[in-house]
Amino acid sequence: MPMNNEKFAQELRKLLASIDFDKRYYAFVESHRNFPPMKDIRQEQLATAIANASLDVVYVKKEIFYKHIELHPVGKIGLNIFFSHSNIEAIFVFHSPGVAGSYHGLARDIGEMRNPNFCPEPPYPRLPFSNVIELQEAVDLVVQLFQEGKKLILAYNSWTI
After folding, report:
1. What is the SS3 assignment for 45?
2. pLDDT given for residue 97 in this prediction
3. Residue 30 — φ and ψ, nearest 5°?
């Protein structure tokens, strides 16, 4: 019997919890939260940070984000990366069952799954950066979490589509 989207979402959160997705995400946010925002970020700096992370992306100019999609037997697995001022927002996408989640939403959901009293402040933080080195660190974390999550999805044999 096929799983519904909520069941897929629950399974995805469990898989991501096994790589400490939430803990790693919040650790980065916490370690960079009091730094001044990066001023005058240029498109070339963003493109360079993504290129350095060794991820093939397409820039969607109309919607101003970078998009990565891979086709696998279980479906499309992708990553969208948005830059806003001195923050990164990333979205993990698993198209086959129709599951997608922002990194900050997934981190919170996984944190609440671990501890129902979990209440981060701010509730849905984006990954901050204040210079090009931190920008690269943030992009590297986003890509690393994506690659590790993708590997778990591909190894997981209980998807019923």
Report:
1. helix
2. 60
3. -65, -40
